[in-house]
Amino acid sequence: MSRQLTVTDIDDLATGAWIIGTGGGGSPYLNHLSARQLAAGGHRFELIDPTELADDAQVAVVSTMGAPVVMQERLQDSRDVARAVEVMAGYLGRPFDAVMATEIGGSNAFQPLMAAAHLDLPVVDADAMGRAYPEAQMTSFAIAGLQPWPLSLVDPRGVEAIVTHVPTWKWMERASRVLTVETGSMAATCKAPRTGAEVKEWSVAHSMTMAIDLGAAVHRARAEHRDPVEAVIDSADGCRLFGGKIVDVERRTTDGFLRGRARLEGLDDWSGRSVELDFQNEWLVARLDNEPIATVPHLICLLDAESGEAIGTETARYGQRAALVGITAPELFRSDAGLRYVGPRAMGYDLDPVDPLAAHSRPGR
Predict the structure, then answer these.
(1) Residue 365 above 50 pLDDT?
(2) Would you tell me how many other CB atoms lie within 10 Å of the CB of residue 162?
(3) Domain annotation covers residue 221
(4) Residues sharing a CB contact under 8 Å with residue 246, sequence separation 6 or more, in sequence order
């Protein structure tokens, strides 16, 4: 059933999407403010269930592409992502019926809302990742073997580009990444359009609602003076993997990505132990005392120990007290086909995937 999102929903989405962004997707802070401003100006956000789409409906799939640290420094204009959809519609010669997120993680959860506000389109309660991943080919649509082209890209300085054809999803990532780097490591994109039938079969359904519900659980816990980290665990069926303090962060922006490693030293029950987190925009691998305890495709969420707010790869800093939470990935991304796109080896690690809930249940954890 369709519904109108309220300002409270928008606030809850900002908190929930930042958590399931697993450190990436860009901080939602600025886009959250933009969505609130659009709502105050009279714009409405209609959220529709994927099942409401006609099979032949045309759905725009949108995101901002780039490095999260740049997204902190450069303000995003909500009209850019709307323009990316218009450029794609012009190329295709037909209008869109709805818009959806490429990824529900971080600021990208707000891209379909901002496009919808300017284009008067409904937002589909779904995305193609169920979290955030660092590269454009790491989607449910790629796993399904759907067509990766065309793609439109818009920069606020007036750069507009269309990638009309590529041989593979990986080539779409490479081509669009070069364009993004040249425009300052941040650009609005409209990915290959999807039909209603494709969205219904292959998207991660109801991920927008999941993020809103997760954020609402955190906000209720704070208001009721309960542990917001436990609220995240309960809402997302996750587990607490570690608690400690960030003692070191190595961070660099290369080839349009934010890469590096963070190290935490344990406190309380984890005193005397340490965790290292590798990242490429998102947290990819967590090692407890050098042993992997969680890897992609599963969700590795670093949270402020007091507020339950997500800690992003671009916002992690020395001295923060943090809780590490693991959440099992959706089934499609755990399949053999899914792991070829989003497993540890797809990210350059010679590791088998580690489900944090399975690791958490081992003796001695």
Answers:
(1) no
(2) 15
(3) no
(4) 262, 263, 264, 311, 316, 317, 318, 319, 320, 322
The boundaries of the domain holding residue 35 are: 3-207
Indicate if 90 and 46 belong to the same structural domain.
yes
pLDDT grade for 73, boundaries at 50, 70 and 90: confident
The answer to whether position 217 is within a domain reads no
Q: What is the CA radius of gyration of the chain?
A: 19
Q: Which run of H or of E encompasses 239?
A: strand 239-254
pTM score, whole prediction = 0.95
218 within a domain of the structure (yes/no)? no
Structure token pair of residue 39: 């709502």
Handedness of CA 162, 132, 252, 67 (dihedral sign): positive
pLDDT tens readout for residues 287-301: 999 999 999 999 999
185 and 232 fall within a common domain: no
pLDDT in tens, 93-148: 999 999 999 999 999 999 999 999 999 999 999 999 999 999 999 999 999 999 99
Q: Which helix (H) or strand (E) holds 339?
A: helix 336-342
Place of tokens 């590269």: 135
Fill in the amino acid letter for 89: A
